[in-house]
Design brief:
elongated; mainly alpha; 103 residues; single chain; two-stranded antiparallel ribbon; 4 helices; 4% strand
Length: 103
Protein backbone atom coordinates (compact mmCIF):
# COMPACT_ATOMS: atom_id res chain seq x y z
CA UNK A 1 0.00 0.00 0.00
CA UNK A 2 1.24 3.45 -0.81
CA UNK A 3 0.59 6.81 0.73
CA UNK A 4 -1.38 7.90 -2.34
CA UNK A 5 -3.80 5.07 -1.60
CA UNK A 6 -4.20 6.34 1.97
CA UNK A 7 -4.88 9.85 0.68
CA UNK A 8 -7.42 8.51 -1.81
CA UNK A 9 -9.32 6.57 0.88
CA UNK A 10 -9.26 9.60 3.18
CA UNK A 11 -10.57 11.96 0.49
CA UNK A 12 -13.32 9.59 -0.63
CA UNK A 13 -14.41 9.13 2.99
CA UNK A 14 -14.67 12.90 3.37
CA UNK A 15 -16.62 13.11 0.10
CA UNK A 16 -19.09 10.45 1.28
CA UNK A 17 -19.61 12.28 4.58
CA UNK A 18 -20.28 15.53 2.70
CA UNK A 19 -22.73 13.67 0.47
CA UNK A 20 -24.49 12.24 3.53
CA UNK A 21 -24.91 15.72 4.98
CA UNK A 22 -26.37 17.01 1.72
CA UNK A 23 -28.73 14.04 1.34
CA UNK A 24 -30.26 14.63 4.77
CA UNK A 25 -32.28 17.50 3.28
CA UNK A 26 -34.25 15.12 1.06
CA UNK A 27 -37.37 13.30 2.17
CA UNK A 28 -37.07 9.72 3.38
CA UNK A 29 -39.46 7.03 2.18
CA UNK A 30 -39.68 4.53 5.04
CA UNK A 31 -42.05 2.26 3.13
CA UNK A 32 -39.27 1.08 0.79
CA UNK A 33 -38.14 -2.48 1.32
CA UNK A 34 -34.78 -4.12 0.77
CA UNK A 35 -34.49 -4.47 -3.00
CA UNK A 36 -32.21 -6.78 -4.96
CA UNK A 37 -29.51 -4.19 -5.65
CA UNK A 38 -29.30 -3.27 -1.96
CA UNK A 39 -29.18 -6.93 -0.99
CA UNK A 40 -26.31 -7.53 -3.43
CA UNK A 41 -24.53 -4.49 -2.01
CA UNK A 42 -24.77 -5.91 1.51
CA UNK A 43 -23.49 -9.31 0.34
CA UNK A 44 -20.53 -7.66 -1.41
CA UNK A 45 -19.83 -5.59 1.69
CA UNK A 46 -19.57 -8.80 3.69
CA UNK A 47 -16.74 -9.90 1.40
CA UNK A 48 -15.00 -6.57 1.83
CA UNK A 49 -15.33 -6.89 5.62
CA UNK A 50 -13.75 -10.33 5.57
CA UNK A 51 -10.90 -9.26 3.29
CA UNK A 52 -10.18 -6.11 5.32
CA UNK A 53 -10.37 -8.00 8.62
CA UNK A 54 -7.82 -10.58 7.48
CA UNK A 55 -5.59 -7.83 6.08
CA UNK A 56 -5.78 -5.92 9.36
CA UNK A 57 -5.00 -9.03 11.38
CA UNK A 58 -2.14 -10.00 9.07
CA UNK A 59 -0.48 -6.61 9.16
CA UNK A 60 -1.13 -5.92 12.84
CA UNK A 61 1.49 -8.38 14.04
CA UNK A 62 4.15 -6.75 11.87
CA UNK A 63 2.96 -3.21 12.38
CA UNK A 64 6.37 -1.52 12.34
CA UNK A 65 7.16 -3.06 8.93
CA UNK A 66 3.73 -2.78 7.34
CA UNK A 67 2.17 0.38 8.78
CA UNK A 68 0.93 1.76 5.40
CA UNK A 69 -0.72 -1.58 4.58
CA UNK A 70 -2.38 -1.67 8.00
CA UNK A 71 -3.69 1.88 7.61
CA UNK A 72 -4.87 1.17 4.06
CA UNK A 73 -6.82 -1.88 5.25
CA UNK A 74 -8.34 0.11 8.09
CA UNK A 75 -9.29 3.00 5.80
CA UNK A 76 -10.71 0.54 3.26
CA UNK A 77 -13.00 -0.82 5.95
CA UNK A 78 -14.08 2.66 7.06
CA UNK A 79 -14.57 4.01 3.54
CA UNK A 80 -16.57 1.06 2.22
CA UNK A 81 -18.77 1.07 5.32
CA UNK A 82 -19.49 4.77 4.89
CA UNK A 83 -20.16 4.28 1.19
CA UNK A 84 -22.52 1.35 1.78
CA UNK A 85 -24.49 3.24 4.41
CA UNK A 86 -24.67 6.24 2.07
CA UNK A 87 -25.99 4.15 -0.84
CA UNK A 88 -28.53 2.30 1.32
CA UNK A 89 -29.80 5.58 2.79
CA UNK A 90 -29.80 7.43 -0.54
CA UNK A 91 -31.83 4.68 -2.21
CA UNK A 92 -34.73 5.54 0.13
CA UNK A 93 -34.60 9.32 -0.35
CA UNK A 94 -36.30 11.43 -2.99
CA UNK A 95 -36.70 15.05 -4.01
CA UNK A 96 -40.13 16.35 -3.10
CA UNK A 97 -39.79 19.90 -4.42
CA UNK A 98 -38.14 21.43 -7.44
CA UNK A 99 -35.60 23.18 -5.21
CA UNK A 100 -34.47 19.78 -3.90
CA UNK A 101 -34.07 18.54 -7.47
CA UNK A 102 -31.85 21.46 -8.45
CA UNK A 103 -29.61 21.19 -5.39
Amino acid sequence: ASYSELIMYGLTSVAVIIGMCQMRKLWYDDSRTLELDNLLLIIAQTGVFMYAAFSIIGTFFQLEDHLPAFLASLLTLIQTTLQTVFILDASCRFACTSSHAYQ
